[in-house]
């Protein structure tokens, strides 16, 4: 029992960790642990069902998560949805390794989005791995990573996605309504990549290249104290780059774009040796040759950090770390992070519309694979909706005709900006929700070609502003009183049936005529049999009287004659009644619909 409980605890712990930090191998269906960095990877089956999985064929060794990819050849955008906690600070990383998977030696370009925001235009390489990273505070409980085609014949793909939860205090000088977009993260003096095994938050620190311009310093302290809010890994502070003299500065490579953008920069440092009383190392940051900071002094055995923000720069801007005028030792640096700051993050599509779309997705499996923000970024909305413009768009149209929907319509009445709902040619069943008639802006409702039943709600049938199409729903009654089926056009355009509608059944007319005639024949036959019996009885009686020598009187019995006359009258009445009933059933007029209903019921397409 104890062993069983221990296994449950371990499983729960693993599940919690998986929810917090996830590494998705796109295009793979396997779960495995990477030997390189002890990272647990999962296939993308649970996150997306669209697109095509491709396995790279190469004679060279490929890092396992990059050996597969998922390519998308249709839709405006294709998205992965990953569960998160609203308001959490996360690091999201997306990888792209082309590997000439299509044999065309033509690496594509396409857009990358997150949570309805434009991220970057991905420029893949023929044989190099590229990745992009964003740090931000989530606004919902779902993280979305999307790729969108932006150039003809250049199909977007993705190789891997990673999400890491960060401490809320990390990168604390950044605006919570904006994202930090990584441009460079480098470790000076290290010989290998520093990440998950050394960095609790699995940031990737690339070793800086030393062109023999710098002296590599190794710390005398084996255990560096790191108590910074940004929690840089301790491994960064074992080595550093330094110049040979105080007059030479360290030029910082930033990888910034050519256009000016807001910049966020972290400089990490630690003194490598115990200094005597005559030595002093003091640093200052220069931007375009001008001092931009107060002096900061590295401390032996302790990690230090300088953060630069509220500054705009581009690729032409120079950043350098120089010795302060009173410094006796040259400048040093252990690590550097450079980010650009995004525009203000969107709140996404209106929450009422998101709720309504979620109801549709919960009901219809065919819609569940549409992810990301429904409307944003513009113009990359879902293919089957229309949206308004603006920072918080509304959904104005649903175009779900011939979409393979099967089931009962859920309640999506929260989508109050809807003007068009097109659900024709599906397999919808049940009644038409009355709440659809309460949508204040609805102008067109097309429900033709389904299997809806019941009557049309009065909130819809009496709405003079609504163009309604309900043809080819054989079990749907267009009027509660007449229950006339909707397989015949009931629009104001006349009484002709729609071109795609089902033929009106003549079975009720045939049965209504045949059954009374059959009964009538049966009754007449019975009456004739009775009359025949009566005549025979009367003849026998008359014969008996004549044989006894009666007086010279009319032949036959007067009582029998009266019975025969009554029978004749009864038969005639029965025949007349049946003829009148049959005539009434055959000539009954069709139900008449009032003018209001005729004005807004339209023939199906």
UniProtKB/TrEMBL annotation:
The keyword Chloroplast does not apply. It is a single-pass membrane protein. Residues 1-20 form the signal peptide. It is found in: Membrane. Keywords: Leucine-rich repeat, Membrane, Receptor, Repeat, Signal, Transmembrane, Transmembrane helix. InterPro entries: Leu-rich_rpt (IPR001611), LRR_dom_sf (IPR032675), Malectin-like_Carb-bd_dom (IPR024788). The keyword Ribonucleoprotein does not apply. Pfam families: LRR_8 (PF13855), Malectin_like (PF12819). Residues 484-505, 586-605 are annotated as: Disordered. Residues 24-341 form the Malectin-like domain. The chain crosses the membrane at residues 507-531. One of its GO terms (cellular component) is membrane. PANTHER family: CARBOHYDRATE-BINDING PROTEIN OF THE ER PROTEIN (PTHR45631:SF44), OS07G0107800 PROTEIN-RELATED (PTHR45631). This is Malectin-like domain-containing protein. It comes from Gossypium barbadense. The lineage of its organism: Eukaryota, Viridiplantae, Streptophyta, Embryophyta, Tracheophyta.
